[in-house]
């Protein structure tokens, strides 16, 4: 084997190693992007479920307090409807935040869901 042929094979080996390194770096970036997408999507879904639970919980508590108010009378009877209405108002605020979260999830999926991972 001549010296120039040996040098060419070494150059080809370096090029092959360089291409493999670039491919591995590209694969690493792709997997990191896919992992970030999955983590963020799961976090948004979890927050959405928490808002849904909060809305149902506070609305139910407000409704229960209104039912209790019907059977109750006395000098402090004004406290129960005020508390129940404030709980229902808080449930409405949770519902609005939940709708905003659903919109945020939809926008996120529209923007990043079509990426070719």
Automatic annotation (TrEMBL):
Keywords carried by this UniProt record: Membrane, Transmembrane, Transmembrane helix
Domain of life: Bacteria
TM stretches of this protein: 53-71, 77-96
Name of the protein in question: DUF4231 domain-containing protein
Gene source species: Shinella kummerowiae
